[in-house]
Amino acid sequence: MRGLRDVVALDDPVGESLRGHHGHLSRRLGRAVTYLPGVATFSAISAEADSAGWGDLARLLGRGEFADMFSCPAMPPSDWEPVFVLEGRQMIWTGDSRPDVSRVELDPAVIQLGAGSVPGMLGLVERTRPGPFWPRTHELGTYLGIRDGGSLVAMVGERLRPPGWTEISAVCTAPEARGRGHAARLVRALIARIVGRGERPFLHVAEANTGAIALYERLGFETRKHVTFRGFRTP
């Protein structure tokens, strides 16, 4: 496995994704950029994070709209209403060997999810609350799942795509299906796909979710930095 490179792209994963791989899913105004409605609520402004950038974002989103600034450290003007603050961490996969993609792809329990799976995906998200997920979120990348009796009981997917990296997200398992190793199985399968195309996996997790952090560490992830997630409402 190649050494860690271009890690600076992870300092602004939303902006790097919107200005690059996810450009077709973005909308822009001046120094501000955000995802299309129904895909994600994440937004980014230019590195200067000055009043002009915040003004562009306010006009782009509209009055009284939600701006999920993800891990952006800059604070908006005082007339922006705080909505939430959540402490978390960014973790990167440090595996030093290439997973066997062909072996993972032969796993009959792991299926790829598409547009036709959206109702089941939304239902699972409603029950498990893994984080933001909307009707078009699956367009961000590959989503994998496991079904039991025809019902989707576990899934994982790709979200942010800064250059050279792919974020693993939406890791969730229905309460009745927990304890069977579904999350680890799916994350490993997605790691194999990401590494197989020459990129490196990373993820974000809430600091209070100690169970998930322990799982990710067992799967080869290490903490790169601690971050604070914030959301605001535009004036």
UniProtKB/TrEMBL annotation:
Q: Please give the Pfam families that the UniProt record associates with this protein.
A: FR47
- Per the record's keyword annotation, is Transferase included, yes or no? yes
Which Gene Ontology terms of cellular component type are present? Answer: ribosome
Task: List each copy of the N-acetyltransferase domain by range.
Answer: 108-235
Output the superkingdom of the source species.
Answer: Bacteria
Task: Enumerate the UniProt keywords alphabetically.
Answer: Acyltransferase, Ribonucleoprotein, Ribosomal protein, Transferase
SUPFAM superfamilies the UniProt entry points to: Acyl-CoA N-acyltransferases (Nat) (SSF55729)
Q: Care to name a GO molecular-function term for this sequence?
A: acyltransferase activity, transferring groups other than amino-acyl groups
Keyword Transferase applies = yes
Q: What is the name of this protein?
A: Ribosomal protein S18 acetylase RimI-like enzyme
